[in-house]
Design a protein that fits this description.
By secondary structure, the chain is α/β, with parallel strands linked by helices. It has 21 helices and seven strands.
Amino acid sequence: MTKFPHLRQDFTASLVVFLVALPLCVGVAVASGVPAELGLVTGIVGGLVTGFLPGSSLQVSGPAAGLTVLVFEAVQEYGLPALGIIVLAAGLLQLIMGALKLGRWFRAISVSVVEGMLAGIGLVLIAGQLYATAGLKAPASGIDKILGLPGAAVDAAGSTAALTSLVLGAATIAVMVLWKKLPKQAQAVPGALAAVILAIAATAVFDLPVATVEVKGLLGSIQPPGLDAFGGVGVGIIGTIIAFTLIASAESLFSAAAVDRLHDGPRTQYDKELMAQGAGNTLCGVLGALPMTAVIVRSSANVSAGARTKASRVMHGVWLLLFAALLPSTLALIPLPALAGILVHAGFKLIPFQKIVPLWREHRGEALILVVTAVSIVAVNMFEGVLIGLALSVVKTAWEASHVKMEIIDKGAGPIQAYLSGNATFLRLPKILDSLESLPQDRPVELDLSGLHHLDHACRTALENWAARHSATGTEPVKVTELEEAPAEKVTA
């Protein structure tokens, strides 16, 4: 025990994380359009491989709801064999980025872009899984999923089987929501697991006509990508690989930052964590499994359960492996509407409802980026939606960085004094010129640039041209005081 002083705490925490992870691994796999066992494979790799590597000591990795939409689209477009290639390539890119120490730079991505990304994923996930709760087939695109919900509701209302399935899915969501209101002793069993167990019991007792998980067996589900799969890969898949890499990395590293705020232990080493995620995804790709990210739900459960070292997440991988090896047939008892309900609940947790209104009040630009990113993902697709959010973030930053203030002092006699402060860039050039050109043409002007932090070439050229025009009518030449870094002397334009 001296060698492992925290073994008891880590053992207990590992069981809690296992119980939280089990239904989520299966649910994410089914929602992604792949065999349920592949979700368990990713969870096992997240525990035994990524969990063992350095980076973030208490963060738990596995298949994430945040990648469900992207995986489903990739499988539909390229086929299941290509999924292994995509995940393998994404893992190798993560390893390279970690080796180049690019992990820390993910913290420079606007939080609004990441939250907008998760919100967009959540909206598409909710819409798609609402069809699944009723046992209906969902449309392909995100916008069609949302626009088709009223028609789906009408279809479900006319079918006894669909209504039965829908009620079971809704009951699953209700159990998960109400479970948190029970005494803490009852909450020792995670809400998602309790909801699945109750759904299994209700299906068996009332002989409900609902679909259940299709079981292929662990070894039967693992299909490493063969050479023929590599031969069928085209250039179009590159965008999907980049999207997998960026989204998985961003979600993992932002999750690490959130987990660090939950405990007082060692802080995350971002580059090492990125390499740990890369190693896990590389192996998942070789096995043809789902991609992995760090998952905040499992990670927070790990911390809350009292985990002290990485041993808890490694042991949770062991329990997943034992379950997949010894009790795989148990998966066939799980009703699909119950898993859909779990994913609907997970989708709602991806949408930052409580943050949007305060963000709008305090930082409207950031709130706009969040909303536009989410809407773009729903309306277009994941990759382009994130790119739109990143582009907006860059434009906003450039606009704010170019903030400039002009103060005009006119005492009625003598020269008019114009003071510029801040950052004078081409983005604010129209405003600067409008103010200067509105000054009386027959009065001398003193232009003081000493308060500027930055003056770009476009602004300098425009100011010189304005000064020349203002002095061309016989008015006393404009006197310019240069930037502070230049000698503070009067020069004549």
